[in-house]
Amino acid sequence: MIAQRINGALRPVPTGALYALGLVPLAILVAQAVTGGLGIDPVKVIEHRLGEVALQFLVAGLAITPLRRWTGVNLIRFRRAVGLLAFLYACLHLAVWVTLDLQFRWAEIGADIAKRPYITLGMAALVAMSPLALTSNTLAIRSLGAAAWGRLHRLTYLVALLAALHFLLLVKAWPVEPMVYLGLVLALLAVRAIGSPARASR
Questions:
Q1: Which superkingdom, per the lineage (predicted)?
Q2: Which of 50, 106, 145, 172 is the most interior residue, by most CB within 10 Å?
Q3: What is the pLDDT of residue 200?
Q4: Mean predicted confidence (pLDDT) in 181-200
């Protein structure tokens, strides 16, 4: 009953509203940067915050199918928008690192990608996200076929795991927050593998 009410309340909500809502963290970050509210190292704060928001959207995207299977709340029609927002923030995260942090020092950028595991993992996650973003449209589904498109988009699981590991290795001291993200990703992957309660009981 509760799930039906939630689904009914969400039915008239357009997908565009989610895109607008998803840009709120970026708007807040820009406002903080303009007003000087990001502390003594604003570039690092911007870079890290963009990456964290990307990870949050990845986790949200992973949660959509288990949420429907286990609670009946259906957010499937918002999944494409969630994935594209994750890709947007990941690209912005990379752009800040390349332009503002390392200031186009390509030799240093290449060396960091090759030698620093957390950067290697982050780049691998972004590369894996790229075909997902490029095929997140109706034309791509028709061209690839639903089965092939579905197999391709299983890369989402790998992307989320790589992104969570990227965050964990980045902070080095292993505080609680990145471990929570990794735990959420692993839990959601496990739940997806188990399937719905009805399937699990068979």
A1: Bacteria
A2: 50
A3: 45
A4: 80
Q: How far apart are CA 183 and CA 178, in angstroms?
A: 9
Q: At what angle do helices 42-71 and 24-35 cross, to 10 degrees?
A: 160
Please tell me the least confidently modeled range out of 81-85, 101-105, 106-110, 193-197. Answer: 193-197
Report how many domains make up the chain. 1
Q: CA-CA distance, 14 to 28, in Å (whole number)?
A: 23
Residue recorded with tokens 């505080």: 175
Asked whether residue 201 is assigned to any structural domain, the reply reads no
CB 182 within 8 A of CB 165: yes
Q: Percent of the chain at pLDDT above 70?
A: 95
Q: Express each pLDDT in 118-176 by its tens digit.
A: 999 999 999 999 999 999 988 998 999 989 999 999 999 999 999 999 999 998 777 89
Does 122 fall in a domain? Answer: yes
Q: Where are the alpha helices (DSSP H) in the chain?
A: 2-10, 15-22, 24-35, 42-71, 79-96, 106-115, 117-134, 138-144, 146-152, 155-171, 176-194, 197-200
Q: How far apart are CA 64 and CA 67, in angstroms?
A: 5
Q: Would you say how long the chain is, in residues?
A: 202
CA 67 to chain centre: 17
Cβ neighbourhood burial of 56 (10 Å; 0-12, 13-18, 19+): middle
pLDDT of residue 202: 40
Residue 103 lies in a domain: yes
